[in-house]
Amino acid sequence: MKFISNKPIIYIKFILAIVSAIVIMYFDTHHQNFFKMRSMFDRMTNPIYRIINVPYKIFDHIFNLCSTKLHLSNINQKLHTKILEISSDQLLFNQYKEENIRLRKLLHAPLKQDIKKIFATVISKNIDFYTSQIIIDKGTSDGIQCGQSVIDYQGIIGQVIASNKFTSRVLLICDFAHAIPLQNLRSNIRFIAFGNGYNHDLRIESLKDDVDLQVGDILVTSGIGGIFPEGYPVAIISSIIKKQDNVYQEVYAHPIANFSTLRFVLILKDNHHFIHENPPEIPKSVIQVEKKRFMELMQELK
Predict the structure, then answer these.
(1) pTM here?
(2) By the 8 A CB rule, do 147 and 227 touch?
(3) What does the pLDDT average to over 234-246?
């Protein structure tokens, strides 16, 4: 009987929780004061994030101290090898950069300006199937603003959605609330990819069956919208599913970045440099040159 009598109370608590959540979401969307309260709360919790990060730093320091001379020697050798590989690749990339400059002059297209970058450390992660966000140790005092794109050494990982004086919150591209304009590096086709949850491939908007896409195609930022600069790698097409009506196809792409191991990131400033108004038409001859160069690059990388 006691269990039965408590059921109405449970229902009332459940309804109150739902109503409270709706009210909070409304004020968060429509009232600036609520946004200030959330920023103040982020500032208050900032010391907690730093305290939580202390044990990891201590453990990392102890681990480095306990590393043997042989282990350090092996790491040093690997780093030297990596530097040589990167240096050799840089020579190749400089060659492509010069060719890209010539092609842009041919198209009468403006060169992309140098992008200022801010280095930041990830101090907290909130990554699961429903939410994919991280907190970094840079804020408005460092020049961070909402809307700035964030990358790691592999490519685009997300964008800043909230920032206070000392920390900022980054929405990852795998979050359900995120969408990013992309371009197929091989076929130059543009589309939008949507977050599909952590550890799940990005979902690309429904495309017609005759659109030129292949598994393994590299997807980069298209520059449309002005948030993300053009040409940064984002994902690789992992699967193409033909629908029963044979008119549309479902396309999924695996993010290049590894969100589970994020520790250091770069924030790209000056988003207004990324906006391209009325981009010029690309002549067919130039497209053929780009395709030929891309295939040569793929062969050399193999």
Answers:
(1) 0.60
(2) yes
(3) 86
